[in-house]
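This part of the workshop introduces the protein records we will be handling. The question running through the whole workshop is how a given chain folds. To make this concrete, we reproduce a full record directly below:
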Amino acid sequence: FLHAFLPPALSMADHVDGGQQDIVDQAAPEDAAEGFGRAADGAAGGGRADGDDAEDEAAKEGPEGEVLRREPLEERIRSFEEDRDEGMKAYKAGDYEKAVEHWAMARGSLKYVVDKEFLNDDPERLARIKEEHYKMHLNLAQAFLKTGEWRQTLEYAGRALTHDPDSEKALYRTSVATKEIGLYDETRQWLDRLMAAHPGNAAGKQLLQEVDRLEKAAQKTAKKAASKIFQGMQEDHDYRTEAPSSRWAQAAWLRCCRRNKVD
């Protein structure tokens, strides 16, 4: 499973200081830009658009069809923003499972927009949608780290790396997940890739030291276990085949052996 992600290509910084994404903090989920993708003035409000209805509406042609097409688009973007924000609230409150639920929905809303090609005539806005889609993958990878679901972390960090093969957060989160699974060789490969792209990553250096310590401890434990097994084998004699020490017992043992040989 993991080799599919190895060295060819293998999640959101809070805007706590009013703006810039802090990619150095690999433990921070990403917030989207303030006001991103707000519905156009006058667009209809409401909840999530039904998938089949949205597809039928988007297929219509002419001015009326364009209006109907824009409505599910804006509804999906509103749904994305709501789930993105609710997911961030849940994450900050320590409810990581709820954060996963909301961010998965947010990701689904953006995927729908991309798959239905609603923004093919607006490349700039489409690029922003794809960037937010990438951030949702990063967020899900981080939330799954918090819930201890390492393979899910690998899945979504891997998807983020298809968007940005040098993503600092995705590479770091992949390294953490492989370390937790106990795949130390793979962890070193991912950390090598992280440090090659981001030589100043302090968290990566610290994680490498931790991997070295864990691997040495595992080797020491394995050596002790093997020694105990070998010692037990030495002490586990089969007295049925061992000659007794007394002269009388030796004579009886030899007679028994001769009789068994004749038989």
User: Anything to note?
Assistant: The chain is about 65% helix and 0% strand. The two ends are 58 Å apart (CA to CA). The CA atoms of residues 3 and 174 lie 13 Å apart.
